[in-house]
Design brief:
Chain B: It comes from Streptomyces tagetis. The structure holds two protein chains of two kinds. Chain A contains four helices and seven strands, in the order βββααββααββ. Chain A has helices at 16-33, 37-56, 90-93, 107-113; strands spanning 2-3, 6-7, 9-13, 61-70, 73-82, 117-122, 128-135. In chain A, helix 2 (37-56) packs antiparallel against helix 4 (107-113). Chain B has a single domain, classed as STAS domain (Transcription Regulator spoIIAA), CATH 3.30.750.24. Chain B has helices at 36-53, 70-85, 97-106, 119-127, and strands spanning 2-4, 19-22, 25-31, 57-64, 89-93, 114-116. Classes of the chains: A alpha+beta, B alpha/beta. The A-B interface holds A 16-17, 19-20, 23-24, 27, 37-38, 40-42, 44-45, 48-49, 52, 96, 102-104, 106-107, 109-111, 113-114, 140 and B 33, 35-37, 66-71, 73-74, 96-99, 101-102, 105-108.
Chain lengths: 146, 143
Amino acid sequence: MDTAAGAQARLPIRSDMDLMWVRQHVRQMAAALGFGLVDQTKLVTAASELARNTLVYGGGGTMETTPLAEGGTPGLRLTFRDEGPGIADLEQALQDGFTSGEGLGMGLGGARRLVHEFAIESSPGAGTTVRVTSWVGRPPLRREEV
Amino acid sequence: MNEAVPWPLPGPATGHVPVLRLGDVLLVTLQGDLYDSTAEQLQRDLAEAIARSGAAGVVIDVSGVDVVDSFLGRILAEIAGQARLLAARTVLVGMRPAVAITLVELGLTLPGLRTALSTEAAMELLTGRAWPARSGGRHRGSP
C-alpha cells in the first residue's frame, strides 16, 4: 500500500541497535501521518516494548509498518513477528507484572494500553505475532476497555 | 567546580554518557535515544562514581529524552535504588510532558524516583542551598 507517509516497510529486530531503528522509524512514520506529539510518543513506546519482547523472548524477528486510511482517518499498523518458543498462557502474559525475563513485566499489557487496537496470536512452538493499530486524532481507549 | 569523575573508558561498541561533578552532586544528562547497553553502562558507571566521589546526590536530566520505555524506566529506578544504598539521593529532572503521560499509561509511575522541573530546583532539593536560576527557566523560589 502506498500513501503519503510511504509504503509498507519491514525492519529486522536482531539487536538493541535494531530497537533504536524501530523507534526512529515508527516516530518518523507517525509524524508523517499526522499523529500529535503525545500519540507519537505512545506509539513509539509501544513499539519499543513489543520489539524488545520480540528480541528477548522471541529470539529476534521483524516489525512491519503499514500506513492505513479509514474514512479519511490515517492510521498506523505495526506487526511484530517472531518464530520463538511462543506463549502458552496469553491471559497471564498480558497481565501487568508478569515477566519471564528482565524488565518490569509491563511489556505486553502496557503496550496494549498505549494503542487503539491490539491483537496477539501465539502458541507454544509456533512463534508470536502481535499486531497493534492507532488512528490519528482518536481519543485513547477507556480504561475499562483495556 | 566542574570536574569529570574518571572511570574506565567504554569499548567502541558501547555508547558513553558523561558524569559531571558539581560540588557533592553528580550530574548526568541523557540525550536522544539510548542503546540498552549504554543505559546499563551508565548504571554501572554511576555506582562506581558515587562510591569513589562520596557524592550526596545524583541529578539525571532527561529533558533531551523523547522516549522512556519500561527498560529505561527500570534502569532509572535501579540507579535511584543503588544510589540510595550508597548514601546518595537521586533526582530526575525535566521529563517531557508526552513522556510523563505515556509512562503513566504504560503503568510505570516510578514511585521511588524524586523529580524536579529544573536542574536548579534539583540542586536546591539535594543541597538545601539556592542555585542561581537561568533566565527563562522554570525555577521557583529563588531568593
